[in-house]
Specification:
This protein is 54% helix and 16% strand. The chain is an alpha+beta fold. The strands form four sheets. Strands 15, 16, 17, 18, 19, 20, 21, 22, 23, 24 and 25 form an eleven-stranded mixed β-sheet that branches. Strands 4, 5, 6, 7, 8, 9, 10 and 11 form an eight-stranded mixed β-sheet that branches. A hairpin with a 2-residue loop joins strand 17 (561-574) and strand 18 (577-584). The longest helix has 44 residues, at 710-753. The chain is elongated. The two termini are 23 Å apart. The mean pLDDT is 86.
């Protein structure tokens, strides 16, 4: 039977290839995800290892609690007088001190040199201690006062040469420095889109406003000294507010945020691989069901010749296993190309990632092959079991068909119950009180799976009315081909429904994403409109990085300014947890329009050294009211107490404020290097070209800052969401492509099935053009059925999620929904190209005698 199965596959090469392609794409996504994240992780490991090359111990500032990079909070530095003390220790062979921060290089066009959202890194270098240096001098010399070195990649992209004079902006206004050399970082092929700028220590300290301070001291031990002994000796001289770790431990600590991000990215991308495989399972099950139905007499003959039901089952499973193995192997290596494509995709949206070459781990091979083969075998089980029910008598009957299963009559009730159970699980996960995050995700995932299975199985009961409605225009305008196409779609509702279900899943997810994105966008725009009582906002060029508070200074000199308010952003620990912390200064009442539940607009201007305000939900959760006291723990270790002076109700789309907001004078006292998330400016005369021009000129010394009016601010802040949305659409397109091949496969198989019928139609006068049109109409009807069910299901799922999430409003992306419907129509037309041409080329005489 194994030989029979293999010969059967070779005899149906086209059908086997089309069936396998669904698994190829799913496995490629899984394989590509692992290759991508493993490659990025390896590159980051090389970067962090390179940073601490030759380092046995690292002295750094100590924060009172673990701070995240999310709010741009910096760990306090320490006095540089510690460096000679470390160098003087008996077990220390050498030590260097350094500072680092963001350093924006300004091109000859006056704009910041930036590659997408990659960081612009600046740091001090000490060429007198090459054992610690992770940079290699490729050309020129190391920097002295008034000079800097830049990475060769940036220099090549922007045509920078040694001797060029560039402005560099860090914590203060941009200052001119000359390029003394070009450098490369370790052995990493690419550091992503990051720009690297190295300065001598005094220049770096001046740029980053860290005069007399250090961020780190790196030390190497003398031969024969253990790391433990070195760490103990250094620890004995450390002042308060500092700590020492081994170089390895410090590299792991620095890479913690990156490791966490890569874990999220891997799960995120694998989810889309799972979607593609899920859709592929429907395609395989449908394709095998059709081929088994078409091979009824073949299986009956085998049964007549003595084959048992178990042997027939084994034969079909062997076919599916071979398809699964070949498709999985193909998908595994296609994943390498997909990983390259994902690198290019992220770079295209401004998210350039470091790369030290593609890495294919054994785990990737095992997981990809195992997943692909198992999905294929599981998807083939039901068709295989149906094949065993073919009675031997069918071998001698013309037009014999598979007998229905014992539970076929319960299909409608069962599938509807499955879908309802899925919706119940979703609702429970979203709205049941007291569930943990893991439980919520579990019920949501299980509910979504049951909903898709239930709706896909129930789709056959929707085919007849939907095909009648969708096919009506074609029947009216397309004549006989249109009528026949509609009837063909309705002839086997289960087959049409299964084919449409594959497309339905992809379009449901695309619709869900579009609905959520539109809701987030509308919520944010409405929130800005409600809060905005100012004229202009100043932010970083990339829209999200903090900017130095020194940017505020030149704005105060602009004529016509009524109020300038920076919104500081940081972190503190209060009520036992780490929370965001924001700050505003006097004049905020002319910038923001808040809905006060307690307090008033004057609260914004009178926070001083000890006042604060909170949002309504935070106040409710922690039983706060006006007059309540809140004690903070800030990174430096200070524990100031603030008194609540107001409580406001933020709009649905959120606000620029953290749960707790204090005055800028207090914030600047407790944070070593405060920065603004935004600066808002209110002008006499409001938004005018003249006012915008004056503000732009005032910021000439700060090229990383930009002025925006309200609409520009909203568009710029939403641009990040648009980029994420585009990535999601590209990833979800994989499942749509899989479903496209499902439609192609179904049409090709039905052309085989209806060979004699097509020959008869040609014999009675149907032209080749009409045959092609009939197949195209049928394909479009199938695709639009999938679109109708998928878009409707996506809307229902989005409404449930939006009802649960407080900061999203229900908004309708009408344009996107129309585009999705048109895209489904295009998918139907593309899918019909090959089957239609094949049907039109049938030889009439051969078709009439085909069996």
């Amino acid at each position: 039977m194994i030989l029979v199965a293999l010969r059967g596959l070779l005899g149906r090469k086209l059908r086997s290839v089309l069936t396998a392609f669904a698994i190829v794409l799913g496995v490629a996504t899984v394989s590509g995800t692992y290759v991508l994240t493993d490659s990025i992780s390896n590159a980051f490991d090389n970067i962090f290892t390179g940073v601490y090359r030759g380092t046995d111990a690292v002295v750094s500032g100590k924060s009172a609690f673990d701070v995240s990079s999310e709010h741009g909070v910096q760990v306090p530095g320490f006095d540089e007088s510690l460096l000679p003390k470390v160098r003087g220790l008996p077990d220390v062979a050498a030590a260097i001190g350094g500072v680092a921060g963001e350093a924006q290089l300004v091109g000859s066009n006056g704009k910041v040199i930036r590659f997408g959202g990659a960081p612009n890194l600046g740091f001090s270098v000490d060429p007198t201690q090459p054992r610690f240096n992770s940079l290699t001098l490729a050309k020129g010399s190391w920097p002295h006062a008034g000079e800097f070195v830049v990475d060769s990649s940036t220099a090549g992209k922007k045509h920078l040469e040694i001797g060029d004079l560039l402005r560099v902006q860090a914590q203060g206004s941009a200052i001119p420095l000359r390029i003394s050399g070009l450098v490369k970082f370790g052995a990493v092929a690419s550091i992503g889109g990051a720009t690297l700028a190295g300065f001598d220590l005094p220049t770096a300290q001046a740029l980053f406003h860290k005069a007399g301070k250090l961020d780190q001291i790196r030390a190497a031990s003398k031969p024969g000294i253990s790391k433990a002994a070195l760490l103990a000796q250094i620890r004995s001289i450390l002042p308060p507010g500092t700590q020492v770790r081994s170089g390895t431990t410090q590299a792991e600590k620095d890479s913690a945020d990156t490791t966490s991000f890569l874990g999220f990215l891997q799960k995120f991308l694998l989810a889309f691989g799972g979607v593609a495989l899920f859709v592929g399972a429907f395609v395989i099950a449908n394709s095998l069901s059709i081929t088994i139905a078409q091979r009824t007499r073949e299986f009956a003959t085998l049964r007549t010749l003595g084959a048992s039901r178990r042997q027939v089952l084994r034969s079909v499973l062997v076919e599916s296993t071979v398809i699964g193995v070949l498709a999985s192997v193909t998908g595994l290596f296609l994943g390498l190309a997909l990983a390259k494509g994902l690198f290019a995709l992220f770079e295209a949206i401004g998210f350039t990632l470091p790369n030290s070459g593609l890495l294919l781990k054994p785990r990737t091979i095992v997981v990809a092959l195992l997943v692909g083969i198992l999905v294929t075998i599981v998807a083939s089980l039901r068709p295989a079991l149906r094949a065993t029910r073919v009675p031997p008598i069918a071998a001698v009957r013309e037009g014999a068909s598979l007998p229905p299963g014992r539970f076929a009559r319960y299909r409608g009730i069962g599938s509807a119950s499955l879908a309802l159970l899925g919706f119940a699980a979703l609702v429970f996960g979203l709205f049941a009180p007291g569930l943990s995050t893991g439980q919520i995700l579990l019920f949501m995932g299980l509910g979504a799976l049951l909903v898709f299975f239930g709706v896909a199985l129930f789709a056959s009961h929707l085919v007849t009315p939907l095909a009648g409605a969708i096919g009506a225009p074609g029947a009216k305008l397309g004549g006989a081909p249109g009528v026949l196409a509609r009837e063909n779609a309705q002839r086997n509702p289960q087959r049409t429904g299964s084919t449409a279900a594959a497309l339905m899943i992809g379009l449901a997810l695309v619709t869900l994403v579009a609905m959520l994105a539109q809701g987030i966008r509308s919520s944010f725009f409405n929130a800005v409109d409600k809060l905005w009582a100012t004229d202009y906002a100043v932010s970083a060029q990339n829209n999200y990085s903090p900017i130095p508070i020194s940017v505020e200074k030149p704005l105060h000199g602009v004529s016509g300014v009524r109020a300038i308010v920076g919104v500081r952003a940081g972190e503190a620990k209060y009520f036992g947890k780490r929370h965001g912390l924001t700050a505003v200064g006097p004049g905020a009442s002319e910038v923001f329009r808040l809905d006060w539940k307690q307090g008033s607009q004057t609260t914004l201007d009178s926070l001083g050294q000890s006042g604060a305000f909170v949002d309504k939900d935070f106040a409710k959760n922690h039983h706060l009211s006006v007059g309540s006291s809140v004690r903070l723990l800030v990174p430096s270790g200070s524990q100031p107490t603030f008194r609540i002076q107001g409580i406001f109700d933020p709009p649905t789309g959120g606000s620029p404020f953290a749960p707790l907001t204090i005055g800028t004078s207090a914030f600047d006292r407790f944070f070593s290097q405060p920065e603004d998330l935004f600066i808002f400016v209110t002008m006499r005369g409001g938004e005018t070209a003249a006012n915008a021009g004056k503000l732009d000129r005032a910021l000439g010394a700060f090229p990383n800052a930009k002025v925006q009016d309200r609409q520009t601010f909203k568009d710029n802040q939403a641009s990040g969401l648009n980029q994420v949305l585009n990535v999601l659409y590209v990833l979800l397109a994989l499942s749509v492509i899989v479903s496209l091949f499902g439609i192609v496969n179904t049409l090709v198989l039905t052309v085989f099935e209806r060979t004699r019928e097509l020959g008869m139609l040609r014999a009675v006068g149907m032209t080749r053009r009409q045959v092609r049109r009939m197949i195209r109409y049928e394909s479009v009807i199938t695709a639009l059925i999938g679109a109708a069910i998928g878009i409707a299901l996506g809307i229902v799922l989005a409404v449930l999620l939006i009802a649960r999430v407080d900061f999203i409003v229900l908004a309708w992306p009408v344009g996107s929904l129309v585009v999705f419907a048109i895209a489904a129509l295009v998918v139907g037309l593309i899918a019909a190209i090959f089957p239609a041409r094949r049907a039109a080329r049938l030889n009439v005489l051969e078709a009439l005698q085909y069996e």
